[in-house]
Amino acid sequence: MTKINLNRISSNEPNFEEFKRMLEEMKAFLTEEPKPDNQDWEDNLEAILEFQDEDGSFRLVDSYKIPMDARVDFCHIPTYICTAILMKAYMKEEVIFDNTAEQILRKALYRCSEIRIRGNGMEFFEQADISGFLKHHHDLCHRFSRIMDKHCRNVFVYGTLMRGEANHDYYLSNSWCKGRATASGFEMYDIGAFPGIVPGEGTVPGELYKVDYETLQRLDCLEGEGSLYTRRNVPVTMSTGERAFAWIYVYNGSIDGLEKLPVWKRHDYVWYVSYGSNMLKKRFMCYIKGGSFEAGGAEHEACENLTEPLDIRACEIPYDMYYGNSSGSWGGKGVSFLDITKTGAAKGVAYLITREQFDHVACQENGGCRREYSHGWYNTVVSLGTMDGCDIVTITNDELREYNEPAEAYVDTLKRGLRENIADMSDEMIGEYLMSCNRAGH
């Protein structure tokens, strides 16, 4: 364990390397579990307690008369971190907080309530289990608790509490739904009549609600907070791209033998399979977030739902891919289509997206026309089965297009997409596959 060495630096002679060192030591100590029987841990806690300024902060600089961004970085953030460290230690039964140490914590909490608690502050408080702290020590600093309650009135739901599901009307019909959102760093499992999420590497889709205190208490009872689920405060991303903090219920039970789910409301999502330039995620996201791709000049309209795909997987399509038509975005050269008149084997990349996002992509692929219009280049939706309970679809033209060889930049984009998603394809194999698509058009 690194020993914490703190000192307050003159604003007239800032030492940014020292600022960085002290912040890194604080952050590292926050990740440590309280160890009251460990002398190094006790020494570090004592160093934090002794470093508190008269105003209750743990600022690293001797004056607030510095630029705003520096004030946040070197005054507010260290105060958030040190307060979170003390909160975490205070909740450990084996850690003895005498009256002096408790007063230091109270002053720190009050100081945090005086400065604007920004998103990064919430991240540090989450590491200190802000949910448990408010639950058991709500009266330690009423002002801090009131402010944190306001910050923590967002609730992210992902299962039976979503609109149209069994528990929604009874628990959330009078709460404001702020819209669709996703929570990263979790994976969802089928518990039976309801889902549960656990920490992982995935992204879980859901809805964000603004609730009052009574509703939050009722949700705690429904979810068995503290036993079946634990309520945590985590960052979530709205479909607009805006980030917020919200309570989320994390499953406490074992997931051994349980089915992993990509989404709960499976009918709202599809696997959209690309076999052309959209195999490269950077290119595909131009259809979702808007803008033009580096190698193609067309400007794409952003989707209303800017959420990134929940999952991306390589797959094989049971039809051959060929190049046809004349694309202005690719120098008048050909682009990818599927020959659905016979079976084949094309490489594809499947994106798990909402149906509204798929409709938007199909519309953009048809020059802004709705996909069912017969004059569009990609006028046909092809069903490719299901995966994890969600439909797999792609688009092409129901008639073979006139063959036209692709531009070098287009082929390069296909190569990048294949390399990005199919690890076991060598450059030679990728080249041979794309050459075979040339032959498929003749």
What are the secondary-structure elements, in order, as H or E? HHHHHHHEHEEHEEEEHEEEEHEEHH
Give the end-to-end Cα distance, rounded to a whole number of Å.
67 Å
Mean pLDDT: 90
Q: Strand percentage, roughly?
A: 15-25%
Characterize the overall form: elongated
Question: How many separate helices?
Answer: 13
- Number-wise, the strands total 13
Radius of gyration (CA) equals: 27 Å
Largest beta-sheet details: 6 strands, antiparallel
The stretches of 5 or more residues where confidence is low (pLDDT under 50) are none
CATH superfamily of the largest domain: Gamma-glutamyl cyclotransferase-like
Q: What is the number of domains?
A: 3
Can you tell me the CATH topology of the largest domain?
A: Hypothetical upf0131 protein ytfp
What structural category do the secondary elements indicate?
alpha+beta
What is the name of the CATH architecture of the largest domain? Roll
Topology:
Layout: H1 16-31, H2 39-51, H3 68-90, H4 99-114, H5 119-127, H6 130-137, H7 142-151, E1 154-157, H8 168-172, E2 176-190, E3 195-210, H9 213-223, E4 229-238, E5 243-251, E6 260-261, E7 269-274, H10 281-289, E8 312-317, E9 320-327, E10 333-339, E11 346-354, H11 355-365, E12 380-387, E13 390-396, H12 408-421, H13 427-440
Parallel strand pairs: 7-13
Antiparallel strand pairs: 1-3, 2-3, 2-4, 2-6, 4-5, 7-11, 8-11, 9-10, 12-13
Helix pairs in contact: 1-3, 3-4, 3-5, 12-13
What can you tell me about this protein's structure?
- With 442 residues, this protein is an alpha+beta fold.
- It has three domains: 16-149; 154-261, Roll (Hypothetical upf0131 protein ytfp); 266-440, Hypothetical upf0131 protein ytfp.
- The protein is 36% helix and 24% strand.
- It has 13 helices and 13 strands.
- It has helices at residues 16-31, 39-51, 68-90, 99-114, 119-127, 130-137, 142-151, 168-172, 213-223, 281-289, 355-365, 408-421, 427-440, and strands at 154-157, 176-190, 195-210, 229-238, 243-251, 260-261, 269-274, 312-317, 320-327, 333-339, 346-354, 380-387, 390-396.
- The strands form three sheets. Strands 1, 2, 3, 4, 5 and 6 form a six-stranded antiparallel sheet that branches. A five-stranded mixed sheet has the order 8-11-7-13-12. Strands 9-10 form a two-stranded antiparallel sheet.
- It is elongated and about 80 Å long.
- The protein starts with 15 loop residues before the first helix and ends with a helix.
- The model has no long low-confidence stretch (mean pLDDT 90).
